[in-house]
Amino acid sequence: MTLFELWQEGAQSLEQAGVPDSEQDARTLLMEAFHLDMTHFLLERMRELGDTEDHTAAAAQYRQWIRLRSGRTPLQHLLGTQEFMGLPFAVNEHVLIPRQDTETLVELVLAEQKDPRIRLLDLCTGSGCIPIGLAVKGGYAQVTASDISQEALEVARKNWEALRPEAVARKGAQNAGGSAAQELIFYQGDLFAALPPETEPFDVITSNPPYIPTEVIRGLEPEVRDHEPILALDGAEDGLYFYRRLAKEARAWLTEGGSLYLEIGHDQGEEVSGLLREAGFAQIQVIKDLPGHDRVVRGTWKSGA
Length: 305
Ligand code: GLN
What we know:
Blueprint: H1 3-16, H2 22-33, H3 38-44, H4 53-70, H5 75-79, E1 81-84, E2 87-90, H6 101-112, E3 119-123, H7 129-138, E4 142-147, H8 150-174, E5 183-188, E6 202-207, H9 214-217, H10 222-227, H11 241-250, E7 254-263, H12 269-278, E8 281-288, E9 294-301
Parallel strand pairs: 3-4, 3-6, 4-5, 6-7
Antiparallel strand pairs: 1-2, 7-9, 8-9
């Protein structure tokens, strides 16, 4: 048996199960099971695999993953990780797998918010990819995040523990000699109810809330529908439940001139803008993602506006 033959065997099983990108997924799982990078895979794929214990264990692991992937378990749940903003995030069934769409929101905040002393809050944080991406790339010293799910917060805390050294190192490099202390505080609870009442207002609030209308969830890919947390997807009847609440509740937690950044579904730009306008936000703007779909709505809070 060669790696190439194992690859073909796995790719065929995935193809028969209707998994998109069957060849690529099979190769990724094979390389992971055998601890190979692409160079070594290419060099060694035609060599006969010896009958060693290591090889037998790796092949068994690979075949088990192929079976699970054929049942449409997301690749990221098998690998346990997803890259976001160039950083590795641990994921499991309790958090939404970070999407490239969400990088649009993080990039926008990084581009618009240049002062590292500002206070940021991320709601519905899940894996923590938004606040951690912001803390690492933006060097913001004061970041708070919350989620209603204790299991999700466990993942987020673990991700921060793993990536905090990177945040501290970058911050140290940015302001040589200055304080490199960097904290990310997590709270569990329902949106703003998670925060202790004495919490100071924030300059920036971000959120990628659940926004899929309940009826639409049934029609999603099995990887999403059957394996990702419904709690992170379900935006109730019209998908707008959390935006209504965020629009109403956020102003009490924003500084004068503070900004709210919300990820949205591609067809929700107009409605979410309307909700922010009704709630008294100014400078409301819809921002597109790389493929050109509406993806973020931003509004500024001005009590006098
Ligand atoms: N973008 C995700 C999806 O399409 C949904 C994210 C969300 O509901 N916040 O599956």
